[in-house]
Design a protein that fits this description.
Blueprint (H helix, E strand, L loop, with lengths): L12 E2 L17 E2 L11 H9 L6 E4 L1 E2 L6 E3 L2 E3 L1 E2 L2 E8 L3 E4 L7 E5 L20 H4 L3 H5 L5 H9 L28 E2 L9 H6 L5 H13 L9 H12 L4 H12 L13 H4 L11 H7 L1
Antiparallel strand pairs: 1-10, 2-4, 3-8, 5-6, 7-8, 8-11, 9-10
Length: 294
Amino acid sequence: MRVDCEGCAGCCIDWRPVSPVSLDHERRGPRAPLDDTYNLVPLTRDEVRNFVDAGLGDVLTPRLWKVPAGEGVEIDGVDVATIGGNPAFFVGMRKPPKPVAPFGLDRTWLRACAFLDPETLQCRIHDTELYPAECSEYPGHNLTLDQETECERVEASYGGDRLVDEVPPTDQHGLLLGPHALGAKVFVHPDPSRLEGVVERLQRRSLTPEDRAEFVGVAVGSHPGSTEVDADRAREARARTLQTASWAGELISTWNGIATVLGASAADAPHPDEVEVKRGAPTTPGWDVVRADN
């Protein structure tokens, strides 16, 4: 499977503000996400734990889904999707606004993965043990499930050949579906009463560090194939996440404070290195190096 990611990163960026067409593939049907994040990458339990161990737990955020009235558990006036009567969720990586220039555009304020270098549009944790399987195998899962890829959406809107090879890899590891996902990628919060107020803040994009740490803890404390949660392990992960003050978390706060309107020009934004590398973010090699290696 070959893709042309140079100058794109459409799967890492929320490019809805500059898209000529509606991008609503995540919000069709009765079970739509409660958050408004675009293409939130689901992490496995082990990946969530690895982020916490690496001191990057403050970059993680939850996703829950709303369902028709009577089909879930009501929290903050919203019926939330459940498994076994308790709220279901997965954990992904936060997307602050950044000055990016994908698809040949000028620098524009768009939400992008916390680990995306806004200058090179390369991942700062690529080729590290933290790089999620969902990212490394993208768009293989979509092709396996016969679902449209972000590469194809970019092609349709901005031209070019992004999806160069449509044959998915045969050695995919991150595709967890059905019962296999339970406790390994889809988690169950054991106590809906602890989420009062949290669901409302999730919808307003105003989650607190305590809110996010609550879900990170439950994910780390989960048992694959089960709805059970190890309370001690969850408590420890929650506490460690709350104690985290990573370079990635700092740059999220900084970009949030600098950004203007999503979709607006970011010509006057500071150079990304001044915000990210200055705070400890790993550098990226640039595309000349990638082309030379290939």
